[in-house]
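[Help] Beginner question about ligand-bound structures

Sorry if this is basic. My supervisor gave me a protein sequence and a SMILES string for S-adenosylmethionine and asked me to "get the holo structure". I don't really know what that means in practice or what format the answer should be in. Inputs are pasted below exactly as I got them.
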Amino acid sequence: MTLGEVLRGATDYLASRGVDNPRRDAELLLARALGLARIELYTAHDRPLTEAERSAARELVQRRGRREPLAYVLGDWDFRRLTLKTDRRALVPRPETELVVERCLELLDGAESPRVVDVGTGSGAIALAIAQERPDARVHATDISADALELAAENAEANGLSVAFQQGDLLAGLPGPFGLIVSNPPYVGADEVDSLEPEVREWEPRGALVDDGQTARLVREAQQVLAGWLVLEVHEARAQEVSQDVEREGYSRIGITNDLAGKERVVEAWWGTTPSTA
Ligand SMILES: C[S@@+](CC[C@H](N)C(=O)[O-])C[C@H]1O[C@@H](n2cnc3c(N)ncnc32)[C@H](O)[C@@H]1O
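Answer (accepted):
No worries, everyone starts somewhere. Holo just means with the ligand present. The predicted complex, written as structure tokens, is below.
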């Protein structure tokens, strides 16, 4: 069989399994199985595949056909300028979270060697991107999940970045003050889980998804250690609610940033007196 035939077969199979973007996924999986860049597939459609190559491709495509997230099957995923190892230990970093990092970097502009903490770091995506893009920042990261922290530490090592990881509940045990506290906490309602795609519902850690009051608690607990910005990724339907909550708690300079689809995604708020201390 040629590469083109295998690609067509894989695409049809993934489509029959309900995969959202079957052609793209088939290309990425086939390229990975063959050790090629995706673009190299286009000029190699007539190339016959060996049995070993077909079997490597089949294994990856079958995993994706079971609706395992593409990022877990590939084993890595790009996030801003980083390539992060991705597996079941943590949530797959999302494009909207890149926007959270973007906003943090803007808010940190002008701050000298800011102390930053990423709460619920998962794969380490936010903490590592800030550490990479603001090399003077002193970055801490916490997670309640030991598995997630293990993955985050592997990602720090693989990318040559330094982040102080600590296991714990939200900010427990972390001495302030921080110039920026950022978090993408679990924010899916328990009643929404059944309506999520199988990739999320059946494969990603439930503790990374379901809102158990973390956002509300973090808004309050951050006040003990924050002298600067709180930046939260929020459920697309709850930005107003979270903004009202931070306002009620006495934060100021509250703002909301929309994602590229126009959804309200990031809430920021200031806690402290001197705006220049971030
Ligand atoms: C939505 S995921 C975000 C992961 C990563 N920051 C990202 O943006 O890709 C939420 C993370 O918060 C962690 N988490 C949940 N409850 C927590 C708590 N009480 N304290 C600390 N981390 C918590 C989960 O283990 C998970 O890794």
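A couple of things worth pointing out: The two ends are 60 Å apart (CA to CA). The chain has a mean pLDDT of 96. Feel free to follow up in the thread.
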